[in-house]
Design brief:
Layout (H helix, E strand, L loop, with lengths): L15 H10 L5 E2 H14 L7 H17 L3 E4 L2 E4 L18
Antiparallel strand pairs: 1-3, 2-3
């Protein structure tokens, strides 16, 4: 019996780093990355979710922040980041990607 394989990854819910980035950037103030990471790191440590080392977490947070910027949910002005109104959409699951047969 042949098993059909999926050729694409399924969409998952946003991870904890993205949740914390959205929570912090939803405030009306803007942050430089270092300040933003410090706040996100503290919040993750409070949730006991900061694992894998601080440098790895910093890289993951920066990658996720740049993804939010490219999706138009965060505005980057110089070195400062500020959440936009569309930032709330980052926490909703995306539409599933159809997998061809």
């Amino acid at each position: 019996m042949l098993m059909q394989r999926k050729s694409a990854f399924s969409r998952r819910l946003p991870d904890l780093v993205t949740e914390e980035l959205v929570a912090v950037l939803s405030k009306k103030s803007s942050f430089e990355f270092k300040q933003l990471f410090d706040v996100v790191h503290e919040r993750l440590r409070a949730r006991n979710a900061a694992s894998g080392g601080e440098e790895m977490l910093r890289l993951r947070a920066y990658e996720k922040l740049q993804n939010l910027v490219s999706r138009g949910m965060v505005k980057k002005t110089g070195k400062k980041y500020k959440g936009l109104a569309s930032l709330a959409k980052a926490l909703t699951p995306a539409e599933p990607i159809p997998v061809g047969k």
